[in-house]
Structures are given as C-alpha cells and as structure tokens.
C-alpha cells in the first residue's frame, strides 16, 4: 500500500475570499514522512504512548529542540562568513530561550 500525506500551513479565509496569498505545502508518498504523519495521529489518539519523530517537527515533542538547533546553525554560519538568515511566521512568541537565541543570532549578524 502506498500512503500519501499532505502537510501544509493553510488558513481558511472565509471573510475575504479575494485575498491571494501563498501557502507552503508538501504532498508526498515518501514512506519516512507518511509513517511519521500516521504516528502523529496515533499520538493524538493515544497521548500516553511515547513517540519520537525523525523527519517531522511536532509540538510539543521536538519543536523547541529543533528550532534551537536551527537558530544555532544560522549563528555558526554567520560567524564563519557563510550565508545565513532566519524568517519566522508566528502568532506569538513566548519561549524565552528562543527569544534569547534570536537576539543572539541578530547580534551575530544573522538577518532575522
């Protein structure tokens, strides 16, 4: 059996149907990803079972650690003179550790 998964950040605009914007999405049959998507739904149904993810960023399992690692990588790139940059789209940001890392990145020359 081939599984397919569609992963995206789409918002439904019901009040402004003529507004155009771009969504990011991925349609894949990659078994590594589709198996993890299936595990996300299994986790939602059975939250008491431990689960890990290797390919997906899933809150609260691994998103903080992965975001910290990504920011740290951009800081290292900037310090080595390599291209760097961080773009985030957030509704709000309350994680003090991530805020501190973003300030450190900006201070290191990373465009944030």
From TrEMBL:
InterPro entries: PP_kinase, PP_kinase_C_1, PPK_C_dom2. Residues 2-48, 56-112 form the Polyphosphate kinase C-terminal domain. It holds the Pfam family PP_kinase_C. GO terms for biological process: polyphosphate biosynthetic process. It comes from Escherichia coli. Its EC number is 2.7.4.1. The keyword Hydrolase does not apply. It comes from the Bacteria. GO terms for molecular function: polyphosphate kinase activity. This is Polyphosphate kinase. GO terms for cellular component: polyphosphate kinase complex. Keywords: Kinase, Transferase. Signal peptide: none annotated.
């Amino acid at each position: 059996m081939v599984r397919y998964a569609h992963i995206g950040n789409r918002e439904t605009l019901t009040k402004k149907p003529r507004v155009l914007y771009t969504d990011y999405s991925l349609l894949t049959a990659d078994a590594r990803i589709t198996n993890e998507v299936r595990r996300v739904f299994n986790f939602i149904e059975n939250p008491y079972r431990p689960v890990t993810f290797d390919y997906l960023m899933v809150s609260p399992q691994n998103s903080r650690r992965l975001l910290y690692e990504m920011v740290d990588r951009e800081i290292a790139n900037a310090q080595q003179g390599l291209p760097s940059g961080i773009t985030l789209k957030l509704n709000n940001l309350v994680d003090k550790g991530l805020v501190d890392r973003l300030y450190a990145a900006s201070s290191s020359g990373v465009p944030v």
